[in-house]
Design a protein that fits this description.
- It catalyses: UMP + ATP = UDP + ADP.
- There is one protein chain.
- By secondary structure, this protein is of the alpha/beta class.
- The protein has 8 helices and 9 strands.
- The protein has one domain: Carbamate kinase (3-Layer(aba) Sandwich).
- Helix content is about 35%, strand content about 20%.
- The longest helix has 25 residues.
- The protein binds adenosine-5'-triphosphate (ATP) and ligand LLZGTKA7.
- The site of the ligand O=c1ccn([C@@H]2O[C@H](COP(=O)(O)O)[C@@H](O)[C@H]2O)c(=O)[nH]1 has 21 residues, from helix 2, helix 3 and helix 5.
- Adenosine-5'-triphosphate binds next to helix 5.
Length: about 240
């Protein structure tokens, strides 16, 4: 079994993935399955940090304007990511995996406030680090938060676990004729304006020379499969 040569990875977990078959919120069975996937990755000998999205609860851009300023709406979105992280931390703990939830938005009575140094210490102790709040600032997304934390935590790769199994020539949910890339560069993704992640996330990853893997977190075992070099995905390199 040839595990890819990654010592430390950052998984960007889609909030929407936590809904399972529901239309909103957190599906317990799905959280358990994703926690098992994370544990399978840890057992390959890889240190894992996870930035969790909030799209299953609130996205700031969708609720801004409904009597809310964009920063207020984004605060609700960031709080949504904290709910997801708390659910995942509890599930990992119940499966016997040591994990620490941290947030870029300070809420110390709920989860530890993120500092790079503390997160590095947790990772060195083989704890899964679960990161809420994205960048901690409005007008960003957790994709950009994922690229930022991956760069500062010296991760070897940013792995975006989402609803689709890679980057396509167009959104495959809207265009059935879209074709999937096995490999593409950061420059090409930005130039072709492929909307799998926001441009800020790709630009930050390009600057940090951080590879990105996009894969489907919907398939049980897909995270470990990709780490073993077997899973279906798109690799983005400089
Ligand atoms: N070129 C493309 N290739 C692949 N997927 C694309 C592309 N353009 C748009 N998408 C869409 O992007 C979606 C993934 O991004 P999206 O931002 O919606 O969710 P997320 O970042 O995974 O997490 P969250 O649910 O927390 O917001 C896919 O489900 C897909 O439909
Ligand atoms: O750095 C960040 C990250 C996220 N937000 C807000 O949270 C929601 C949920 O995150 P997704 O990436 O969409 O899953 C996002 O829509 C923003 O409203 C933020 O403000 N800053």
């Amino acid at each position: 079994m040839a595990v890819l040569p990654y010592k430390r990875v950052l998984v960007k977990l889609s909030g929407e993935a936590l809904m399972g078959g529901e239309a909103f919120g957190i599906d317990r069975a799905t959280v358990r399955r994703i926690a098992e996937d994370v544990i399978e990755a840890v057992k390959l000998g890889v240190e894992v940090a996870v930035v969790v999205g909030g799209g299953n609860i609130f996205r700031g851009s969708q609720i801004a304007g409904m009597g809310l300023s964009r920063p207020a709406a984004d605060s609700m979105g960031m709080l949504a990511t904290a709910m997801n992280v708390i659910a995942l931390e509890a599930q990992l703990a119940s499966l016997g995996q040591s994990a620490r939830a941290m947030s870029g938005v300070a809420m110390p009575s709920v989860v530890e406030t993120y500092t790079r140094q503390q997160a590095m210490e947790h990772l060195a102790k083989d704890r899964v680090v679960l990161l809420a709040g994205g960048t901690g600032n409005p007008f960003f997304t957790t994709d950009t938060g994922g690229a930022l934390r991956a760069a500062e935590l010296e991760c070897n790769v940013l792995m975006k676990g989402t609803q689709v199994d890679g980057i396509y020539s167009a959104d495959p949910k809207k265009d059935p004729a879209a074709t999937r890339y096995d490999h593409i560069t950061h420059d090409e993704v930005i130039r072709k304006d492929l909307k799998i992640m926001d441009t800020a996330a790709f630009a930050l990853a390009r600057e940090a020379r951080l590879p990105i893997i996009v894969f489907s977190i919907q398939q049980p075992g897909s995270l470990a499969a990709v780490l073993r070099g077997e899973g279906r995905c798109t690799l983005v390199t400089p």
